[in-house]
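Homework help board

Subject: predicted structure for assignment chain

Our instructor gave us this sequence and asked us to write out the predicted structure in token form, then describe one feature. I got the tokens but I'm not sure how to describe them. Can anyone check?
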Amino acid sequence: MEKTTVQQATGSVVVAAIQFSCSNNTKENIAKAKRFIREAASAGANIILLQELFSTLYFCEEPCEVCTNALSSCCVELLQEYFSLAVSLNQVDDSFLSEFQSLAKELRVVLPVSFFERCK
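My token output:
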């Protein structure tokens, strides 16, 4: 976790950037994110940034183990598995967003949250 402080006329803003390893267990990843968010807030962060796609495995640059080329035909099955993790905005579990909204409110921090959104 990196911490940067920016002085302003009205006070200071402390930004924390959180990066951690993820598994295919979404609940574990979310719990880990919350733990790191609490640590960052207790260290004085006002803005806490989580990594992209923190609730799932980050697969965007992961090639197929067979051919090591994410664009080849043997990767179709792997890509289908990963793209099955995507959800449309109206399918996002309300509890997922509301949990982080409540946590941000409780800790009085800015907490942008990303998820893998399915294209229409």
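Reply (TA_rk): Your tokens look well-formed. For the description, you could write something like this. The mean pLDDT is 79. That's the kind of observation they're looking for.
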